[in-house]
Automatic annotation (TrEMBL):
InterPro entries: Pyruvate:ferred/Flavod_OxRd, Pyrv_Fd/Flavodoxin_OxRdtase_N, THDP-binding
Domain of life: Bacteria
Protein's organism: Candidatus Thiomargarita nelsonii
BP GO terms, sorted: response to oxidative stress
MF terms in GO: oxidoreductase activity
Keyword terms of this UniProt record: Oxidoreductase, Pyruvate
Official protein name in the record: Pyruvate:ferredoxin (Flavodoxin) oxidoreductase
Location of the Pyruvate flavodoxin/ferredoxin oxidoreductase pyrimidine binding domain: 22-54
């Protein structure tokens, strides 16, 4: 696959969005633990998967959320 560098698609995003984009594109399963300030990354990955957006291999990543605190 060749990249089309003559007409790049440029967007301005923050670090959380960039991390979520890369995580969604490069994983089959995304485990999230919704805590601030990283909650945005999990929400964005979950949104992309629920919209049916695929990763680099053509699969929709599964997003698994852990909503409990671990107590030892």
């Amino acid at each position: 696959m060749e990249a089309n560098l003559s007409n790049p698609h440029i967007v301005t995003i923050d670090g959380n969005e960039a991390a979520a984009y890369v995580a969604h594109k490069t994983n089959e399963v995304i485990a999230i633990y919704p805590i601030t300030p990283s909650s945005v990354m999990g929400e964005l990955c979950d949104e992309r998967s629920s919209q049916g957006k695929t990763n680099l291999w053509g699969a929709v990543p599964e997003v698994i959320s852990n909503m409990t605190d671990f107590v030892r």
